Amino acid sequence: MIIESRAYARAGLMGNPSDGFFGKTISISVRNFGASVKLYPSPELIIEPQPQDTNEFRSIYHLRDAVSTLGYHGGVPLLKAAIKKFLEYCEREQIKLPNRNFSIRYATSIPRQVGLSGSSAIIVAAFRALMRFYDVEIPLPILPNLVLATETEELGIAAGLQDRVIQCFEGCVYMDFDRSLMERQGHGYYEPLDPRLLPKLYIAYKTELGKQSGKVHNDVRSRWLQGEELVVHTLNSIADVAGQGREALLQQDTDALNSLVNRNFDLRCQIYPISDSNMALIRTARACGASASFTGSGGSIIGIYRDDAMLNRLFIELKKLNARVIKPYVI
Questions:
Q1: pLDDT in tens, 182-194
Q2: Which of 91, 106, 218, 249 has an alpha carbon 20 to 30 Å from 261's alpha carbon atom?
């Protein structure tokens, strides 16, 4: 019996990055890219490395390019951490697992480190495979907490719940991470929204701009914890963008959504440094008439375009910056 599970890329549409600060967000699942995990019984527990996990390189230049694109560690540490966290959850819940071993491998088409959540997709897919293999049901609102803990506690990655929620729920989801709600029930309020309400969206990404999100968030987090007024006020305003965006989405107010996407990014600029290359993506997209904001921590942008003529301009102008443009496939 071979078990195969999948999880997809994601893009933050509004509210990003307030999810790590008890804020609100709207995100979409991007099925253009995905991660898959295959798991099957075997005499011993084996994690099968993939080409991106290799420590052999053709040259020093090959090593540099591989690290720039894939990071330093590949996917094997993600699988190890997911398996450990899955077992710890079962022990806490007093779920006795049968004495069965397995081999597990992963594959991914998600561009790495460009704000499309490639790492968490591998972990979500791994949890889904383990749940099927051991016939364990983890409540859907709780699963994102376990995925996040896998990254933060086991791998030291600074992250928020938004990515993991949308990858577990899929589609389009409005999330409210109100502190009192989180403390009372252990998770936020997650409201699936009909993807048919979404306006015309594009995503553009540029792999060489990718960076680990934890490095981006660390300074702002420390300032937020210290209660710095600018940071606290700005993050609250970014959360408000998502709340307003939910209402505009339900009302099918595309003009309001367009303005809110831009406002999200403009607020972000008040507290986060933005590289010239990332800013060039934003400015180029807006010069074409589209709105533009980050999908995550940088490297990819998302926005609303009006018609095919505008989309074509985005393809042409962003290609000049070495960026690829796609229409996100959301179910």
A1: 999 999 999 999 9
A2: 218
